[in-house]
Design brief:
Layout (H helix, E strand, L loop, with lengths): L1 E4 L9 H8 L5 H9 L3 E3 L2 E2 L11 E4 L18 E4 L3 E6 L16 H8 L23 E7 L2 H12 L4 E9 L6 E5 L3 E2 L7 E2 L9 E9 L3 E8 L6 H8 L23 E9 L10 E5 L4 H10 L1
Parallel strand pairs: 7-14
Antiparallel strand pairs: 1-4, 2-3, 2-4, 5-6, 6-7, 8-13, 8-14, 9-12, 10-11, 12-13, 14-15
Helix pairs in contact: 1-2
Length: 303
């Protein structure tokens, strides 16, 4: 049992954030689980994670053992678009989380992958075997998975060297003025809304996005988008920053749309050099993921 006293400087802080500072080795979702399990008391009474401290509270916490840091196999479907001895490319559906985190411990793409493949790269750790890059939960499309540690390192070098060509399809709000465009704005965590990123600050990680218009509708524009970097929510943040949020993306300001059952963002194509090919030339591989039926229907209604 650990005991703490909230000071006057803690006034206004949430209980779970207070405890996360005290237990930096544990995730916020793990600490919230302790609170739900009544392993935390404030002034000897159970409390909620959202409790706002006033200062002076006596807080007791009985940490629970962390679950095994390993992704468990789950017999759920995986659509394979391409595979060779080094790499697997899968078609991730919208709504599927890539790996555990932020309160999600099962039902992820990784849980499916470890069930379908005997060996995957361990460079990213046992919770993220094979994962070289990610797609947002709401984004569908092609995603690369490394089968070996050597393949993982080779692919990671291609991503960091910006030699991987990633093409997305996005339907955005408003009529985009120019036929092509480029957005170069750093992306950082939004200091006021921690679930969001922002391109409105001078600080952050550099990010580059280019686009071209594929089709125009009355109040929407269909774009092909390429990204030279892979920042969190990059396409969504950049397009919203120029006044054209991705359709269905309420987090970044998209208005309600009766056609929107998800955000209209799809990773349609990726090109890379397979680590399984023989250097120095290397085999360039291009993998495509067809536009999902729900997005095809959305476009059909507009047309």
């Amino acid at each position: 049992m650990k005991q703490f006293s909230a000071g006057t400087h803690d006034a206004g802080r949430r209980l779970d954030l207070f405890l996360q500072e005290k237990f930096p080795e544990h995730s916020r979702s793990r600490i919230q689980a302790w609170i739900k399990e009544a392993r935390v008391t404030v002034n000897r009474a159970p409390a909620k994670a959202s409790l706002i401290l006033r200062g002076g509270e006596q807080i007791e916490a009985a940490p629970a053992a962390s679950p095994p840091l390993q992704a468990a196999p789950e017999d759920l479907p995986v659509e394979i678009l391409y595979e060779d001895p080094a790499v697997v490319a899968v078609n991730k559906p919208s709504g599927l989380v890539v790996h555990a985190g932020a309160g999600v411990e099962s039902g992820t793409l990784v849980n499916r992958l470890v069930n379908h493949f005997q060996g995957l790269s361990q460079v990213g750790g046992q919770l993220r075997p094979g994962i070289v890059h990610r797609l947002d939960k709401g984004t569908s499309g092609v995603l690369l998975v490394a089968r070996t540690d050597a393949a993982h390192r080779a692919l990671a070098a291609q991503f960091s060297g910006r030699t991987v060509d990633k093409v997305y399809l996005a339907l955005v709000q408003g009529r985009v003025r120019d036929e092509t465009g480029r957005i170069d704005k750093p992306i950082a965590r939004d200091p006021l809304h921690r679930t969001r990123m922002t391109a409105r600050l001078d600080t952050g990680r550099s990010a580059s996005t280019t686009y071209r218009v594929l089709e125009r509708f009355d109040t929407l524009t269909y774009l092909e988008v390429r990204i030279g970097t892979g920042r969190t929510h990059q396409i969504r943040v950049h397009l919203a920053s120029i006044g054209h949020p991705v359709a269905g993306d309420r987090l970044y300001g998209a208005r309600a749309d009766e056609n929107a059952t998800r955000i209209f963002l799809h990773a349609a194509r990726i090109s890379f050099t397979s680590p399984a090919s023989n250097p120095p030339s290397g085999e360039r591989v291009t993998v495509e993921a067809p536009l999902p039926a729900d997005l095809e229907q959305w476009l059909a209604r507009l047309r």
